[in-house]
TrEMBL record:
Ranges of residues in domain Transposase IS4 N-terminal: 2-94
Record InterPro entries: RNaseH-like_sf, Transpos_IS4, Transposase_11, Transposases_IS4_N
UniProt organism field: Kitasatospora cystarginea
Domain Transposase IS4-like: 112-224
SUPFAM superfamilies: Ribonuclease H-like
Protein name as it appears in the record: IS4 family transposase
Pfam family, one: Nterm_IS4
Length: 256
């Protein structure tokens, strides 16, 4: 809880609600500021229900003068309060705190003068509602969707600190490469972007390289990487071809 309030101070949470226009019309036992902390705290206490998370908040989170936080008798009130809050305050908060955090003295953050960042993706189960199933979809066992609907997330993180620089979400059917395009604006010269073999494509590589960042990506065996020129350090230049126009970009590869 201490780390939560150091990162998301009461003043910052108050500003998030203000910026999003999410103030309640009248004073309630579950005000918008409390519901912001509640939504954040649910990620810290994933094994507890609504009541347990609220108890942790009421006992440990400081509040601004005049705010009245009480624990409701029914958790249905919490569900309604979360719906009133909406996503906008959380989105604004993320924009304020996300970004690189490490310094040259932080272990694992820099390599040969370049700040290390990495792309990766994962899936989250979301509640099994008709609306979620229609929008997010999920895996199937033939003709029918199997299990919960799933949201796909791709994030750009700073190596060494694990700080999240940016994150985007989409339906299950939206691929990681497609989502990754929405994170490229975070890249800049002086960064070295790492990515696993699920990301390489001509278009994504070309756009990522255009940001000025250096790229170090794994590739799958399906990529044909003919040797164009062997370099003194044992690596070699190869060509990644665009499928339609056959345009090419030079990249450095490790020998087999």
């Amino acid at each position: 809880m201490g780390q939560l309030t150091r990162t998301f101070t009461p003043e910052l949470v108050h500003q998030a609600v203000e910026e999003a226009g999410a103030w309640e019309e009248r004073t309630k036992a579950l005000p918008s500021t409390l519901m912001v902390y509640f939504t954040l705290a649910m990620w810290l206490f994933t094994g507890q229900g609504y009541g347990g998370v609220l108890r942790e908040l009421l006992e440990n989170i400081p509040r601004r003068a005049g705010e009245k936080w009480t624990r409701p008798a029914r958790t249905g009130s919490v569900t309604k309060a979360r719906a009133r809050l909406g996503a906008a305050p959380l989105r604004w908060l993320f924009g304020q705190v996300a970004g690189v955090q490490g310094t040259p003295a932080t272990p694992g953050v820099f390599w040969r003068g370049r700040r290390l960042v990495s792309l990766d993706g994962t899936l989250f189960d979301v509640p099994a509602s008709d609306a979620n199933a229609a929008y997010f979809g999920g895996g199937s066992n033939g003709e029918r969707q199997a299990g919960y609907p799933q949201a796909r997330m791709v994030a750009l993180g700073e190596c060494g600190t694990h700080a999240v620089v940016g994150a985007v979400f989409g339906p299950f059917a939206t691929g990681e490469r497609t989502l990754a395009h929405r994170l490229l604006h975070h890249l800049k010269a002086g960064m070295l972007l790492l990515a696993d073999r699920g990301f390489p494509s001509f278009t994504l590589w070309e756009k990522a390289a255009a940001t000025g960042a250096d790229l170090l990506w794994r590739v799958s065996d399906s990529f044909r990487l003919p040797v164009v020129e062997v370099l003194p350090d044992g690596t070699y230049l190869s060509r990644l071809c665009e499928q339609r126009t056959k345009r090419t970009v030079l990249k450095t590869a490790e020998p087999n």
